[in-house]
Design goal:
Layout (H helix, E strand, L loop, with lengths): L2 H22 L14 E2 L39 E16 L2 E3 L2 E15 L2 E23 L8 E25 L2 E22 L6 E24 L4 E10 L2 E3 L3 E8 L4 E9 L3 E3 L1 E11 L3 E11 L5 E7 L2 E7 L6 E10 L13 E9 L4 E2 L2 E2 L2 E13 L7 E13 L7 E15 L9
Antiparallel strand pairs: 1-5, 2-3, 2-4, 2-24, 4-5, 5-6, 6-7, 7-8, 8-9, 8-11, 9-14, 10-13, 11-12, 14-15, 15-18, 16-17, 18-19, 19-22, 20-21, 22-23, 23-24
Length: about 450
């Protein structure tokens, strides 16, 4: 099979898996996904989920790292890599003394890659970009103001949807120890937020509001990596990434209705264009490698959401107006530290090549709630990579990681969330391009 036929086969395979991934990432059960474009998805892959997602300075011959496309240049010339991962989530959400424990399973990513020419690697794949998924309600008793007794007000909130990202990228090493790369991505998806406020008295009209949008656009992300050999046993690789921000010329729709038990008695629909914007982003990181036995990295990333356009309902002169503004978000900062230990990279036993991983991360929110910053995220992870060996292949692995994530709001009266996550990934590395010799 030539490399060009292989590329076509990979595109067909990844496209087929995309439909499954899109169906599996339709919700995350978090009420906080009702803000902005939803909960931003984790960018980590099988090799670094156990390291909390650190990766801007990491690359290797048997490693796919879409977080820095410059890493594709290091893909081994004789292999084709296929990588797929899924997560099993259990959440514990508490509010005013009550709690719920939703569970779900998601397909996290599908990606593949191989080397095209010496120093030039290619990767393509798909992953979720954001997730919207919640369904909750609240009730309160209203005072008797008309002499007919107390009434109950019930508010129901429902949201679903999310954005997905499909990419193709190249990494090129023009000189030794230096690589540059880029990912070109197609971002698409939709979201729907709905609220309904009803009353115990059937003669009181209920209020229904719907906020919907559909987003289709492109993304362009650049990456650099430079490796500095300290001595024969140690080296440091620095990584830099840059994401291009831009406006999206697509509409958002707001529907405001008054309803009785049998009909709609009043409705307004507002359509506004140029409603969205993708932020500029950048990241810097470094990874220290000691004899391929110890790898420790640190990353800092920033997504510059603060001035991005997004639709929202605002008060103007005593009335509410649905319009595009730039005050819905804050810049998102994230710091990640993680590492990996391999007992004996040159050993002959399977246990010599088991990778033990660890990591922690901290992230600030990108969205605001009632003009206050949203909740902060704290994450800790542990993981292992177990090699799969047979007579044809000794580079494939099963990646197993556990993560604990705490979502901490700035206000004690808001919902607290804790996530316990089991992540499983399969990295399949086949020696497809060997030239066989017969005697």
């Amino acid at each position: 099979m030539t490399k060009y036929k292989l590329l076509i086969a990979l595109i067909v395979t990844v496209t087929t898996c995309c439909h499954r991934l899109q169906a599996q990432t339709s919700g995350n059960n978090s009420p906080y996904s009702r803000y902005g474009i939803g909960t931003l998805a984790d960018e980590a892959q099988g090799f670094n989920k156990g390291m909390a997602g650190v990766g801007l300075g990491m690359s290797g011959p048997n490693l796919l790292n879409h977080q820095n496309p410059a890493s594709y240049a290091a893909i081994d010339s004789l292999t084709m890599i296929f990588d797929i991962g899924a997560s099993f989530n259990t959440a514990h959400m508490t509010y005013n003394g009550s709690s719920v424990n939703p569970q779900n399973t998601t397909l996290d990513y599908v990606q593949a890659g191989f080397r095209l020419f010496k120093g030039l690697g290619l990767s393509l794949g798909m992953r979720p970009f954001s997730v919207v998924g919640y369904n909750f309600n609240s009730s309160r008793t209203m005072e008797d103001i008309d002499g007919y007794g107390e009434k109950t007000n019930t508010a129901t909130y429902l949201g679903e949807g999310g954005l997905h990202l499909a990419y193709i990228g190249l990494g090129w090493a023009p000189v030794k120890n230096f690589a540059i790369g880029a990912n070109v991505s197609y971002l698409w998806g939709d979201y729907s937020h709905a609220s309904n406020i009803s009353f115990s008295e059937s003669n009181i009209q209920s209020l229904y509001r719907s906020y919907t949008g559909n987003i289709n656009t492109w993304l362009l992300d650049w990456g650099l990596q430079y490796t500095y050999p300290i001595n024969k046993d140690n080296q440091i690789t620095a990584g830099v990434t840059l994401g291009i921000g831009h406006q999206i010329d697509q509409q958002a729709v707001f529907i405001n209705q008054k309803r009785t038990t049998s009909s709609v008695v009043g409705a307004d629909t507002t359509n506004i264009g140029k409603a969205y914007e993708i932020p500029w982003s950048y990241g810097i990181g470094a990874a220290w490698n000691h004899k391929d036995r110890w790898v420790v990295g640190i990353d800092y990333t920033c997504q510059m959401w603060q001035d991005c356009r997004f639709p929202r309902l605002e008060d103007e002169g005593g009335s509410q107006v649905y319009k595009v503004g730039t005050n819905s978000f804050s810049n998102r900062h994230k710091v990640t530290i993680g590492g990996q230990y391999t007992p004996n990279p040159q050993g002959y036993r399977m246990r010599d090549h088991i990778n033990y991983r660890f990591g922690v991360s901290y992230a600030t929110p990108y969205f605001k709630m009632y003009n206050q910053d949203g909740p902060k995220n704290y994450l800790a992870s542990l993981g292992v990579s177990i090699p799969i060996t047979n007579r044809y292949n000794n580079s494939s692995s099963i990646n197993i990681s556990t993560q604990y994530e705490h979502v901490s709001p700035s206000n004690d009266n808001l919902i607290k969330e804790d996530y316990f996550r089991l992540c499983v990934g399969l990295t399949f590395n086949a020696t497809w391009f060997n030239k066989w010799k017969f005697e």
